[in-house]
Amino acid sequence: MYRTHTCGQLRASDAGKKVTLAGWVQRSRKLGGMTFIDLRDRYGITQLVVKADAPAELVETANSLGREFVIQATGEVVERESKNAKMDTGDIEIQLDSINILNKSVTPPFTIEDNSDGGEDLRAKYRYLDLRRNPLQRALKIRHNIAIEIRNYLDSQNFMEIETPYLIKSTPEGARDFVVPSRMNPGTFYALPQSPQTFKQLLMVAGYDRYFQIVRCFRDEDLRADRQPEFTQIDCEMSFVEQEDVLNTFEGMMRTLFKKIVNVDIPNPIPRMSWYDAMDKYGSDKPDIRFGMEIHDITAQTKGFGFSVFDSAEYIGSIAVPGAASYTRKELDQLTEWVKRPQVGAKGLVYIKLNEDGTVKSSVDKFYTPEQIQAIVAAAEAKKGDLVLILCGAKRKAQTMLGVLRIEMGNRLGYRDPKVFAPLWVVDFPLFEWDDETNRFYAMHHPFTAPKPEHLDWYYSDKKEDLERVCANAYDFVLNGTELGGGSIRIHEAAMQERMFEILGITKEEADYKFGFIINAFKFGAPPHGGLAFGFDRVCALFGGQETIRDYIAFPKNNQGRDVMIDAPSQIDQVQMDELFIQSTFKPEE
Amino acid sequence: MYRTHTCGQLRASDAGKKVTLAGWVQRSRKLGGMTFIDLRDRYGITQLVVKADAPAELVETANSLGREFVIQATGEVVERESKNAKMDTGDIEIQLDSINILNKSVTPPFTIEDNSDGGEDLRAKYRYLDLRRNPLQRALKIRHNIAIEIRNYLDSQNFMEIETPYLIKSTPEGARDFVVPSRMNPGTFYALPQSPQTFKQLLMVAGYDRYFQIVRCFRDEDLRADRQPEFTQIDCEMSFVEQEDVLNTFEGMMRTLFKKIVNVDIPNPIPRMSWYDAMDKYGSDKPDIRFGMEIHDITAQTKGFGFSVFDSAEYIGSIAVPGAASYTRKELDQLTEWVKRPQVGAKGLVYIKLNEDGTVKSSVDKFYTPEQIQAIVAAAEAKKGDLVLILCGAKRKAQTMLGVLRIEMGNRLGYRDPKVFAPLWVVDFPLFEWDDETNRFYAMHHPFTAPKPEHLDWYYSDKKEDLERVCANAYDFVLNGTELGGGSIRIHEAAMQERMFEILGITKEEADYKFGFIINAFKFGAPPHGGLAFGFDRVCALFGGQETIRDYIAFPKNNQGRDVMIDAPSQIDQVQMDELFIQSTFKPEE
Description:
Chain A is an alpha+beta fold. In chain A, the strands form 5 sheets. The first copy, chain A, has an 8-stranded mixed beta sheet, with helices on both faces. Chain A has a 5-stranded mixed beta barrel with strand order 1-2-3-5-4.
């Protein structure tokens, strides 16, 4: 071993000990003949000192050290005269007898500090240097700790971690698969799993009762911001359970994580909200409930008074933004432009200012009497100083736009503190979505999701309006406006499954082709079962107080799906392609 | 929840409780008007009873149950009159009030018993049914338990589990990569990792100090027996360590596993053997030291006495097989045929029988005097009743054949009890192997493995015989004749690395092309580091007392790399190939 202690270990009580440390030179400076070196490893930073009267050779070596040199240093622990309370090792320093340069370093292309001077692209290329920075070390440490806690919790609940294969079969549905040509089976391909869904349901058929896996999944999608082509999932499934059992089990897991990782006691029980309430009040199926500013339906108070925009709208809704009555004309114009961007998609924005002096100013004054405006304000539950923002359109679409606006205003007002954690179960999703274009129902989750037991009459009804109100035995875990996970109770009875296919307009032949394998397995005694999956990268990021996942993945890909550090993907040899019986058809433009 | 207890939970102390169980019908039988049902889940089997005077409907339901039906059964726990000591729940049975059939089952194609009547292919196709059998449930449970213990041990030793990417870059060396065409980067391919070797070394450069990962690896090799195209590795790396530190750390891990998983105290310390001794005494770099029967060099006692086969051999070696002097002529002939098979590759087999009555009989009586035979027997360290088996040839080749023969005789004599665990570190591997054909040295492990510090003079010497005796700072963990893992201390100094390339005849250009990326990373302050990797599938199998890994993998591939359950790999759509800019060049023969 090159060291007796780590760089985060020594305290005043160690004074007098002879120690050897090893690590990287964070910085070194000369001060009145002495040389001070900050030595860094994963565990901390320790100050080393070479005194002015040290042997010349040692002084020379100390003064030759560059940033990021790797050294081994031996000396005596002494209590510092001027202590540094900000550092765990700030009470001591090491008076050196010797320095052994283990490795030199060329000058890194950016500073290895909490706030580096390197741009994103440069840091991505030298990811192994970026990973030396504290914020990333902390991110990966929290990831490690969360994984350990998850596994131990689930183990204590009789879950077994079972590894499922990565080389599986391409399925004709869903997102695009990554595929892998098989050399031993020419002309055929494996696919990389988008999730272990089929396998975990098979494990329930196989009697494993409680399964989990922290597992990599792959989706060949065009990458939106903060999506990765490979991502990690906490994948779980349980047998002989109802929805309540699944929610309780994973509420327990989350409670344990919050306590052990960030020492936070989350509400007990975690609040639950129906999908309908979430849409109506927050305009989102993943509401951020750290703040109110709820959406109100003000259709009754605004429609039919001669303002044609509202008169022709299905739905008119509002949010009341505290303290924003002071917005200037210019700020309101900017906000109007903001909601008109394609990402939001509103046609315009109506406002009512409730000034602190009791006066009211709105962009629709001429269409409503002061009394009518007061009625709107009352329906919007606004109070003095509030700015009421109003959008209209088709109900769910308008609510969604209001939801996006609400989050924006929440950000502007500082309501979205990453140190505050507001978990929520969203439940009672509609089982089906009707699509006007194709004139048929689609499964909102997937065609194996069970209806709620109390809605079975509607499920077996022939009426469209009955089917529309069937709720799914499905649930999402939402934290601070981000969906961290979700799942459902699965259908395990053949008759119920057949009915599902019937409603979705899937013929028996089509069902056999697409799902035959799992349907067949279910004939051999499938137990009632259900489960869920959490996005592990996102869980880690949120526990770390961040919204982006990239820093919580050691070696992420960029938005083009490239690893710029190792330069992948890349061209391969013709020999390799020949062996795999494939050929590239790509013709680069000349 | 469909149950109050599992099928493995109830004891005599629960008598009188009203309980509900859920599970699969293992078997049911009628006995004097009563119906007995064995209900099975992952946790055990509980006997259910429907009494003769139960309601007719209940009796009828009980009698309608087929094998593998999934039921929910409610009743009272009663202490049995005739207890079954073989079952954990054997003291009780449940007198039923009701049975709820949750799911029927068609008759499974084979019996779900410890010893199934299904053939291997049939069980592979219905893997989800095979997985219901006890031996497989136990196998996957032990795998889960080992993973939990490994993670907790390594966590306690400050290791961090860090996930490395699965979509990486194809490398021009080593075994064949599986590749993944990139849709977003047309004409290019990712590769699936054969191991995270590069990434774990980068994590050391990045200062993570102690890394591990239980990680899937992929190798597109022609599958030998008991190889899988995807397999799981316990991958580890440490900074600022010497070989001794790595061995101690993982000895600690193995000691913990043996104690916690199979309650065995392994020798402390685990014995170490040099590669040279392993080859000389056991004819293998992974000796099974559960038994002796060591190889002896009897060249001096056999060469030069006029027996031309021996006289022309570089090396003559023997093993003495206890009690096998009684082998008949026919048995000896069969053994001779056995060693002549291509898998062993001997040209013939010479024997000396030391009969219990003191007489000696050998196949080379006419070439040696009785005194010379006695000298051979003494050198072979044989005793009365032993059969001395002798092979000759080039030294290492003959030793290897003797090693294979030794294992075979060990099997025949029952010396290889899977409940006995004999771990061993094999150390001091040669750093280089000379190849006569290409007239150059090859790295025995890989070109980043460091020489032993005490052999540095030889390492920098120009003499072939010096280089041949340089030992690597490398080590293998061997258990019961199987290599479970191995690793090395890596080179971290530029000058030592350059010397390695020089010895291997790799030019600077070639080195840059093949390893440039990692060499470049090493310029930024690489710490001294080393590590190892264990084959997790094999670790699980050996702890479970098996030699084959297939039962320790939930969904393995067959020898053609196929998953016959899901029928993968399979053909994909032309549309999919077009999107990926690839085309299949395979033309099935007509």
